[in-house]
Each structure stands twice: as C-alpha cells, then as structure tokens.
C-alpha cells in the first residue's frame, strides 16, 4: 500500500510539473530567399510531442522532411535542478516562383493537448541577372571590391512633404557577402530638420534583397524620422563610411592540397551615399486661431477633476493629445479660465512617445490648474485644438465640451468677496510689574492750578495726535485693500518681480547648459512679463497685439523690435541644432536689459 501511495504522488508531481511548464511551439525560416534556392523550415517545441501536422505549401516544393532531432539541457539554480527537452522538426523546401508567400501554422500534440505554431512570411526574390558574371568573377583572382559589390544607399520614404510632416530616412548596406566591418561611420547632420532616431536591434540582422536586378545581403544601419523646420528645397548631405571587407582569393596551385584551401584578404574601402534633396511645401494659409503647430493625425480628450468645488480649492483641467506626427513639437492648447480665477502655468503630466519606422506616435497630457476666489456658477469654454492633416491637405479642429463649474463658499473666505490677506497682528494686553501703587508720603511737591495737565495744550494733543494717526492709517489701509482687490494692478506691479524670478531660473539652466529648458524658461519670462504688464491673458497674447499695446503705452519702436527679436530667437533656437554657449549668454543679457528698459518706460 505504501508503494502504491508513493507511486501515485510521484506520478501526480510529474504531471503537475509538466502541466506547469509552458509549452512553446515555434516555426522559423529565412525571411527572403531566391527562386530555385533551397532553404530550411524548422518547427521547434520544448517538450516531447507527437502527431505533427503541417498544412500544404503549394508555393514551395518539399524536397525533404521532416527530420527530427532532440536536444537535452539541464541547469542548476538555487539548489534546484531543471531539465528541458527540445525537439526540432526540419523540412527542406525549394522556392518555385517570385513573390511573397505565407507558410501557414502547424499543429502538434503534447500531453494530449494541441499546440499551434506561428505563421511565416517568406519573400522569394528573382534570379540574380548578374549571377553568371558574379560566378566567373568569383572563380578568378580577386584583388578588390567594386562599387556594385558593396555600397550604402540612403533611401527616403517621401521627397515631397509639407513643413513639419515626418518622413523616414533609411541607411542600408548592400553587399555580396557578410564579412564586412565598419571602422568609421559618419551620418549626415540633417540640417534644417528635427531628427528622431528609430531604435534598431543591437545585433544587426542580415537579410537578402534584390536591388537593380542583383541579389545582395543587406542590413539596416540606421533609420531616422525627419521633420522639416522650414519650407523650400532642403538637401540631406552625403554620409561616409569606412569599411573593411574580407574577400576570397585564389592563388596558383603549388601543391595538391592548394586546390582544397582558399585564401582570404582584407580590403579597406570608403563608401558614400548620394545627397538627397527634399521639396518642402509651406503649410496652406487660413490657419485656425487654435492651430498648435501640429501636423499629422491627432485625437484630443479633455476632462475636469470636479464640477463642484469650494473657494480656494484647486480646479484641474486635463488635456490629452494623442496620434502620429510631430507630437513632440505640438504647442499646448489654450484653456480660458474665468477672470476671477488665479491661473497657474500648465504642467506636462505625461509625455509618452515612441519612434518607429511609421513615425513618432504617442500621448501628451497637459494639466491646467486654477484656484477660484469667488463663490458662484462659472463656465470654462470648450478647448479647441487644430492640426494640419497631411492625408487630406486640410486643417482640422477638435473641440471639447464646455465645463460647468459650481463654486461654494469655503472656510476662511467670504461668499461674494475675494480673500484679502490680513496684515495686522493682534496681541492681548499684558500687565507688566505690580498692579497696586502705594501712596508716596515723602518728597511731596505742590503745583498751582495753572500748572495742571488736565485742560492743558499737551492734554488735548494727546487726543488729537492719536485721532490723526488713526485717520491716516485708515486711509492707507483702505487704499491697500482697494489695490489688493484690483487684481490687474497687483499683477502689473509684480510683473518685474515675476520676470526676475524666472530669469534667475533661466540663469541656472544656462550654467548647466540645458539648452531647450533655458529657451523655454526665457519664453515664459517674456510672455509672463508682457501678460502681467499689459493686463492681457497669455492665451490672448500674440506678437501683433503686443506690438500694438506697447505702442499705446508710448514704448519706442526700437525697444518693441528688441522684444520681438528675442521672442523669435527663443522660438527658433528651441528646435534648431545646438547653439554656442556665447549665443545663449548674449540672449540672456539682452533679455535682462530689455525688461529693465521696459520698466523705465512703463511706470505704473
């Protein structure tokens, strides 16, 4: 009985172990072959299987198979032994005709369960037109490598694009053999473009391809998605590559054994790609006011954290932009809060993008926060986001819903009045020393009625002076309260202080040589200063109305031009190639000087 119980548990343990192991059944074959070429089709399973069923493959001739081979492996990890059995079924196929063909999945039974492999796609290339010449050259002594045997091609997916429309650039090596090593690689600088590199496998994968009637071994060296930053004809310069290729040579036979052994030599060669010119068309006129510099295909989603809040509680509107295109260059949509709200700068909550051969895609989420200071019912207008659709060649506008917001009276504030800070500190009256005075009996001095303090000039001044001080304090206090209630005046007075604070942050970024963050901080300082100084929301600021408003305040044209030039320099430098540090220093000094001149011009 004990033996039977032990055997039962042993079989149960084995069964559970087999059931717990994940069965993997996978098919593999070359992704490209040549017409008339034999190749292997393999099915691998990590367990003992039976009843392998392979579907018909009418596009190929089955020359042999299946041949079965087994491999055993054992590992010892953390005191536990683990063994694995791998069974491989191999077929030898012959490609009959040119084209792209599918190999359907196969099935196999393991432990009374059926498993299905993956399907495959095999590209059959035509016969090499120069095959005979290549064979004759291969049999002859070889002293070099011709440009037809080894070259690098720069291939672009589009040659006519719109400004900010992405296209793919691929650098591909073509070779008659795979014995190629790179010693120096220099890709183009892509001037005039914003480049986003596609991540490729670390280990280069060779494949076969037909190019101009000849078959080559090919490998992709680099793929980059480019976004043109200006219109016109932009040329991508040539790339240069220093390579070392090992070729087979034949020498005159000096003995019987020389006929069976080949010799090899390494040949150094410099390869170069041809320059490519891209025709970049400007975006059509008639851009919507909500155009966010977005080109591609996009979607927008908008939400609010709550429709009912109390005064002094934060309200957050979240905008998510998703799609494919120049999403990393897309400007933040504008959210218009009521004038009675204290609005903060937008915050980038998520920037999840990835670059593939199809372009840059992902999601960009921005959070907008504001604090209501009044109680009541408010409305946040619909958020609009416009982009240029390259497929239709038109502008499209996406719009969110209108957000209704009910604000209730919060603690510590009035329901219909703004919260005003109390600058006065009150303190309870304290008694110092003794509260009982003893009668003095010594050194008594008598005074006449004319010398009494009561009714004297000083007596009345003691009443008059405090009264006058109270009136003056009351007038100053009411003026301070009135100015604090005037939010526009407070913003105007604090404009320079806020700009100086942001420029200090920009100075730190300048010392750390963080180029993109530096220009963004300078732009925030300038736009924030103009918004506060002119009492215009940032969402309504444009270069045109800034110029008009500054002219109204009597600012001379040279100072206005200086401000506009700084704005243009920052916007261009954010996406331009790396700038020299002295240029960033000069821009920083110009910004500080321009704000100082503006403070001296507009005084209020």
Write the layout of secondary structure elements.
Elements: H1 2-20, E1 25-28, E2 32-34, E3 38-45, E4 50-53, E5 60-77, E6 80-95, E7 99-103, E8 107-110, E9 113-116, E10 120-125, H2 131-139, E11 150-156, E12 160-162, E13 167-175, E14 180-186, E15 193-197, E16 207-211, E17 214-228, E18 232-236, E19 240-249, E20 263-272, E21 276-281, E22 291-304, E23 308-310, E24 315-325, E25 341-343, E26 347-356, E27 359-372, E28 376-380, E29 384-389, E30 394-399, E31 403-408, H3 457-485, H4 487-493, H5 495-511, H6 515-534, H7 543-552, H8 557-573, H9 581-601
Parallel strand pairs: 2-10, 12-21, 22-29, 23-31
Antiparallel strand pairs: 1-3, 3-6, 4-8, 5-6, 7-10, 8-9, 11-13, 13-17, 14-19, 15-17, 16-17, 18-21, 19-20, 22-24, 24-27, 25-27, 26-27, 28-31, 29-30
Largest sheet: 7 strands, mixed
Strand content: 35-45%
Radius of gyration: 40 Å
Low-confidence stretches: 132-142, 414-434
The class by helix and strand makeup works out as alpha+beta
Distance between the termini: 103 Å
Number of domains: 4
Characterization of this structure:
There is one protein chain. The protein starts with a helix and ends with a helix. Strands 22, 24, 25, 26, 27, 29 and 30 form a 7-stranded mixed beta sheet that branches. Strands 11, 13, 15, 16 and 17 form a 5-stranded antiparallel beta sheet that branches. It has a 4-stranded antiparallel beta sheet with strand order 1-3-6-5, with no helix packed on it. The chain folds into 4 domains: 2-125, Immunoglobulins (Immunoglobulin-like), CATH 2.60.40; 131-281, no CATH class; 299-408, Immunoglobulin-like (Sandwich); 489-601, Up-down Bundle (Four Helix Bundle (Hemerythrin (Met), subunit A)). The protein has helices at residues 2-20, 131-139, 457-485, 487-493, 495-511, 515-534, 543-552, 557-573, 581-601, and strands at residues 25-28, 32-34, 38-45, 50-53, 60-77, 80-95, 99-103, 107-110, 113-116, 120-125, 150-156, 160-162, 167-175, 180-186, 193-197, 207-211, 214-228, 232-236, 240-249, 263-272, 276-281, 291-304, 308-310, 315-325, 341-343, 347-356, 359-372, 376-380, 384-389, 394-399, 403-408. It is built from 9 helices and 31 strands. The model is unreliable at 132-142 and 414-434 (pLDDT under 50).
């Amino acid at each position: 009985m004990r033996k039977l119980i032990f055997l039962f548990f042993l079989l149960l343990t084995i069964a559970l172990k087999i059931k717990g192991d994940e069965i993997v059944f996978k098919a593999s074959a070359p992704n490209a072959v040549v017409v008339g070429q034999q190749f292997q089709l393999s099915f691998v399973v990590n367990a003992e299987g039976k009843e392998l069923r392979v579907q018909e493959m009418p596009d190929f001739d089955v020359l042999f198979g299946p041949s079965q081979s087994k491999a055993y492996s054992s590992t010892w990890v953390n005191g536990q032994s683990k063994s694995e059995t791998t069974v491989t079924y191999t077929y030898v196929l012959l490609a009959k005709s040119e084209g792209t063909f599918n190999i359907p999945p196969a099935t196999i039974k393991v432990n009374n369960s059926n498993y299905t492999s993956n399907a495959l796609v095999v590209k059959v290339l035509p016969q090499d037109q120069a095959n005979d010449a290549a064979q004759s050259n291969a049999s002859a002594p070889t002293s070099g490598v011709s440009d037809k045997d080894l070259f690098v091609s720069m291939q672009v997916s589009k040659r006519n694009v719109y400004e900010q429309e992405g296209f793919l650039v691929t650098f591909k090596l073509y070779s008659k053999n795979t014995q190629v090593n790179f010693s120096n690689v220099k890709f183009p600088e892509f001037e005039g473009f914003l480049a986003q590199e596609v991540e490729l496998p670390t280990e280069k994968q060779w494949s076969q391809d037909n190019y101009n009637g000849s078959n080559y071994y090919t490998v992709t060296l680099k793929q980059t998605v480019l976004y043109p930053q200006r219109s016109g004809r932009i040329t991508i310069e040539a790339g240069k590559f220093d390579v070392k290729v090992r070729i087979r040579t034949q020498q005159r036979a000096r003995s019987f054994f020389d006929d069976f052994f080949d010799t090899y030599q390494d040949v150094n060669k410099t390869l170069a790609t041809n320059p490519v010119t891209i025709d970049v068309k400007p975006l059509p006129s008639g851009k919507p006011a909500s155009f966010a510099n977005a080109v591609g295909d996009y979607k927008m989603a908008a939400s609010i954290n709550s429709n009912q809040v109390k005064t002094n509680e934060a309200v957050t509107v979240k905008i998510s932009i998703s799609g494919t295109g120049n999403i990393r260059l897309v400007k933040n949509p504008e959210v218009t809060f009521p004038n009675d709200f204290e609005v903060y700068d937008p915050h980038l909550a998520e920037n999840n993008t990835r670059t593939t051969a199809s372009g840059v895609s992902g999601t960009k989420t921005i959070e907008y926060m504001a604090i209501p200071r009044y109680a009541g019912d408010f409305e946040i207008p619909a958020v609009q986001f416009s982009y240029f659709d390259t497929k239709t060649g038109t502008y499209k506008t996406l719009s969110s819903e209108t957000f209704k917001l009910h604000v209730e009276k919060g603690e510590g504030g009035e329901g219909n009045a703004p919260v005003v800070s109390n600058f006065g500190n009150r303190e309870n009256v304290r008694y110092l020393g003794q509260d009982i005075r003893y009668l003095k009996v010594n050194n008594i001095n008598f005074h006449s009625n004319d010398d009494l303090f009561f009714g004297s000039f000083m007596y009345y001044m003691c009443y008059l002076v405090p009264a006058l001080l109270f009136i003056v304090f009351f007038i100053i206090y009411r003026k301070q309260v009135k100015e604090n209630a005037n939010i526009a005046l407070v913003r105007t007075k604090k404009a320079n202080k806020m700009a100086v604070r942001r420029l200090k942050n920009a100075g730190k970024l300048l010392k750390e040589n963080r180029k993109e963050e530096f220009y963004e901080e300078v732009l925030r300082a300038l736009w924030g200063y103009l918004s506060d100084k002119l009492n215009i929301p940032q969402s309504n600021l444009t270069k045109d109305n800034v110029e008009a408003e500054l002219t109204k305040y009597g600012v001379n044209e040279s100072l206005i031009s200086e401000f506009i030039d700084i704005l243009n320099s920052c916007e261009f430098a954010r996406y331009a190639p790396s700038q020299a540090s002295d240029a960033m220093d000069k821009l920083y000094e110009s910004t500080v000087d321009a704000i100082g001149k503006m403070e001296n011009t507009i005084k209020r």
